Every structure is written in structure tokens, then in C-alpha cells.
């Protein structure tokens, strides 16, 4: 079991314990499920061989917190995309050079109670930054 999986599992367990205390009884029916994800960014074609890997965990429901430095903004961005990492849209205003320095990102955990396992490799950091503004910005 990887560190990211253990952290996500611990966060989900903590959420289960906190949820009844954190949310009023009348509002609990509005919560569809917990959302806790481990995010990884690495320099390379795959995370297996990537250099300089960084990991952050993000909890978006029922509370927003985590090791991600911009948890609130990242959760907002993911909520707008319906938890679908392929639908993340940054501002896309950067003009990127045609330099191949791949960046691989991944997300593992749960979103709205459903299992998430996603990975993508971008040609360089600039292209990655055009795709999302906050989720992988750590």
C-alpha cells in the first residue's frame, strides 16, 4: 500500500468520524459522499521513473482541508469539473514553448464516494498549467 493510499484512507476514515459532528443533521442528506484525493506531480514520462515527485492530499467533502496549499481553490476547480480530471480547464492564457520536458500528474482516492484513479502526462509544465489553475499547483 503506497503512502498516498494510506494518507487517503486515513483522511476518509477521519471524515467518516467527523462528518456527523461537522454537519448539522438537517444538512446531511445534501452530502452525496466524501471526497479525498492524493495528488502527485512528477518530472518525467511516468510516475514510476519521474524525478522530483511531489504529493499533496486534498479533502473536499464534507470539509475542505489537506496538505494542498490551495485546498479551497483546488476543491472549487474540481467541483466545477464534476470531479472529472479530464474536464479541468485553466485559464489557458500562457503561450508555451515547444520544449519536451514532460510532467506527469496523478490523482488517486475517492470523489463524491466513487473511486478515482487518473493519470496524465503533459509535454511540459507550461502546458500543464494551462489545463488547471490550482489542482496540481503545489
From TrEMBL:
Transmembrane segments: none annotated. It is found in: Secreted. One of its GO terms (molecular function) is serine-type endopeptidase inhibitor activity. Residues 1-27 form the signal peptide. Pfam families: SSI. Its main location: secreted. GO terms for cellular component: extracellular region. Homodimer. This is Protease inhibitor protein. It comes from Nocardia arthritidis. The lineage of its organism: Bacteria, Bacillati, Actinomycetota, Actinomycetes, Mycobacteriales.
